[in-house]
Amino acid sequence: MILPISAIKVGDRVRKDMGDLSGLAASMKTHGLLHPVVVKADHTLVAGHRRIEAARLLGCKAIAVTVVEVDDLLSAERDENRERKDFTPTEAVAIGKLIEEQERPRAVEAKRVGALRTSAKTSRADHGETPSSVARGPVRERAAAAVGMSAQKYTQAKAVVAAAEAEPEKYGDLPSRMDETDNVYGAHREMERRKDSTTGRHPVHYKKRYQKTNDIVRRAMDSLEGICATLADVRAEEADASEAPAWAKALEGSASAIRQFAKRLKNVKK
């Protein structure tokens, strides 16, 4: 859907400083808008403020948008809709927050109703409640499922976005890095490193004389983190039964090689 930029209600956003938009604008000019802006049905902006500002720099009057409604996403989650469009991690966080805001009061009410039922030993029918009116499962997990993430991945992505909003100078690059690589775990790990280190870099990088080896290990670790995060969200029972044994054997071999290298690293003398 194409929407006039002037029709999008930006509102009072947490992020005031858009940072340098020239790179994003150049990318949009060359490759187009890879990820549409996300808005609600009333055109309130959910995610994509920097994309809007970059589009303005390019002189665009309209922009592609994805319209989301919480109830529709939750319905898709209930129906296990596998055709739902994947969101970037930051989009998923923004949309997940909307879902949590809507579902939290329902969860509180469901808990209250459940307590009443328990104390009074009455049936759901006696209270006029139907299964659809009672929130199923923790709000965080429902939000995560609705945007196509595991609960752990969603929680980590939320932490990265929150850190960037609270301290943009220290963590502001991580959300875009997370979107570009779709490596939520890696961005979250980097956030934790920066919290614990004044330099913001892992000790493996401190000694320049070992830089080549360190770079190789670092790239391997980043790749493995992305692979592990991806596999964590895969339902193994849906794998091709004819291919599964070979895949399992190959993965076991890779895991063995990784374990052996990890042992060698533990024996490295300081």
Key attributes of the depicted protein:
57% helix; 6% strand; globular; 11 helices; 270 residues; Conserved hypothetical protein from pyrococcus furiosus pfu- 392566-001, ParB domain; mainly alpha; 4-stranded mixed sheet
Task: Explain the overall architecture.
This protein has 270 residues and is mainly alpha-helical. Among the domains are: 1-67, Conserved hypothetical protein from pyrococcus furiosus pfu- 392566-001, ParB domain, CATH 3.90.1530; 238-270. Helix content is 57%, strand content 6%. It is built from eleven helices and four strands. The chain has helices at residues 22-31, 49-57, 70-78, 89-120, 139-146, 151-166, 168-171, 174-181, 184-196, 211-232, 244-266, and strands at residues 2-4, 37-39, 45-47, 62-67. The chain has a four-stranded mixed sheet, with helices on both faces. Strand 2 (37-39) and strand 3 form a beta hairpin. Helix 3 (70-78) packs across helix 5 (139-146), helix 5 crosses helix 6 and helix 6 (151-166) packs across helix 9. The longest helix has 32 residues, at 89-120. The protein is globular, with a radius of gyration of 23 Å.
